[in-house]
Amino acid sequence: MNMGATALARPGLEPLVTGISDIVSRRLGPRRTAYTVADLLRDRLPGLDILTPLEREGSPDGYVSRPLHAQEDFSIVSVVWRPGQETVIHDHVAWCTFGIISGIEHETLYRDMGDHLLEIGRADNRPGEVSGFAPPGDIHKVLNTSGEVGVSIHVYGADVSRLGSSVRRVYDLPVR
Questions:
Q1: Got the DSSP string for 12-69?
Q2: Does Ribosomal protein count among this protein's keywords (predicted)?
Q3: 106 labelled as ligand-binding?
């Protein structure tokens, strides 16, 4: 599903779609694509006005993930987190790049050891910060540790409107 014309009316979205389309068309490989898209997102990270005031409120029921643009080879998604909201431990179907607009996304990284997960790192991702990664090795959990609603933009190397989610697998293993 191409969400083209309607999605492009959001401030700051059109230059992202154009730039990401160009990068993806180069077929650089997943990891290099994620890092190249991260460089682009760092230069073109939109402001809060990419979402309506109502969309920026989030939901008391959990974080809200909203596709802003989707096509066969990539999607741009907004994620809105109220304070204390978090994901489960998961990995992704494709490469991912994300940029923080507001809030603090505390990320915990894990390695799958077969019968358990091993925590291998933590990072506090703050407004203006951008990062990217590609499977394998992308097992993580994210938590909004700030006292404000967090908003981030995620770019995935897949059509999440067709797949329904960027998550490949949820991990229910003990953490050691």
A1: THHHHHHHHHHHHHT---HHHHHHHHHHHHHHH---GGGS-HHHHT--TTS-EEEEEE
A2: no
A3: no
CA distance 79 to 34: 18
Tell me which fold the domain 4-170 belongs to.
Answer: Jelly Rolls (2.60.120)
Strand order in the sheet with 64-71: 64-71, 74-81, 150-156, 96-102, 130-133
Tell whether pTM > 0.85: yes
Q: How far apart are CA 15 and CA 156, in angstroms?
A: 16
> Taking CA 151 as the corner, what is the angle to CA 64 and CA 10, rounded to the nearest 5 degrees?
90
159 vs 108: CA distance, rounded Å? 25
Taken as a whole, the chain contains a residue count of 176
Rg (CA), the chain: 15
**Bridging pattern class, strands 150-156 and 74-81:** antiparallel
Alpha carbon distances (Å) from 94 to 8, 48, 136, 147: 23, 26, 9, 31
In tens, the pLDDT along 26-69 reads 999 999 999 999 999 999 999 999 999 999 999 999 999 999 99
